[in-house]
Amino acid sequence: MSSATTLSQYLQEQRARFLQDNGRGWTIVMGNEAGDLDTVASSIGYAWHRVQYGVQNDRGKAIALVPTPRVDFVLRPENIHVLALAGITDPFAELLCPEDLPVTQKCIDYALVDHNTLNTRYSQPDARVVAVIDHHEDEGNYRDTASPRIIQPCGSCASLVTSLYMSLSASNGHSQIPSDLAVLLLSAITIDTGGLSKGGKTVDIDRAAVAWLLPYAKVTLPAPIPTETPVDPRASTLGEILENPWIGSLANTLIAEKRSVSHLSTRDLLRRDYKQYTLQLSPSISQGTGGPIQAGLSTVPLPLSTFFKSGSAPVVVMTMAWMGECGLSILGVLTTYRSKKDKGRREQLWIVNQRGEGSGQDRLARALFDGLEAREALLLKRVKYSRYGFAGREDEDTHQEDKTDSIPGDLVDYSPFSDPFIARVYKQKNTHATRKQVAPILKQIVEG
Ligand SMILES: [Mn+2]
151 CA to middle of ligand 1, Å? Predict the structure, then answer.
């Protein structure tokens, strides 16, 4: 296939070949726009698998597209750390980023990992989705074109990619994976499952993937490893692996890096882990105005009290500007953080642009807030803005808080978001629900 001896060299060669061919005849393996470690590892992992063991007519022409624009790379220090662990130290020479794609590029085949609907940016009329491997809710697309089409809930999409290698290995006994690639996949599973923690999102697929990858990953190499306890893969049982100190140490390092975001501006916090959705307004909300609307969901690894700490005015102005820049009718800010007692906590801030497309006076805001508040899967508890340091009148006048049937009246006066924006803040009592659960709920509420 190639003379490359390391993953880094291999990726550079593939990238050069892709650009030389202008993408003609290639399959782009793409993760989701949030560009987290799972997306990066899964796309590189599946592209390699496709080239080595995959579809005949690909003839080695599959490449991972990292969906993160170059300027946004710094927003994910954990990605940079793990890429370096895997020997990828000059990402812009090794990885294909959106701005590398030639305007005239001829690639029409896409394989989707870590999401299951092709981003509208790439959905030109002749685009074909030839494979889907994902752990988000199945949106039901590409049943007749995608093969494989694997959509299954588990902690990390990288576990599903790993299971492709595993099933090959079980059937012919000689599936191999480069050490650097094993490190990438292992790291993604580790961060997504909090080090395979019990009671979290971890399922057997994740545990089995880690057990299979560890021997290939040569984890005694430089890494955040307590080297006094090297791993002997052949002696490892699944139980031992779950207690594996390397996994625990790596999880701590990566999670700490992922949370080290306090230096970021409001705009950077909103865009570093961001997904945008085009939703079709239900007739009962739109009342004839109709048309699609844009909704964005930002996951922010800080409590709202910290998010707002630089003072209400600049944060609110930058948040409204972000909504304007993305053309959003709805923005949800989903926070995730640890309490002082190290308990997982989540909050939600929802902002609706009442002059946005199809918002029909207050109907969209009303439908959204009512819909969210009724969801037992979220268990939202409304919180006052004064809790986050906003000078409001709610505390002097608490009965106002209960006037839920006059949405524009009860919060516009107190919210730091001024007309035409209307916002509510919630504590999320079900701390297990992430954007993966919130996005389909939002879609159901808006589309009816
Ligand atoms: Mn994922």
Answer: 12
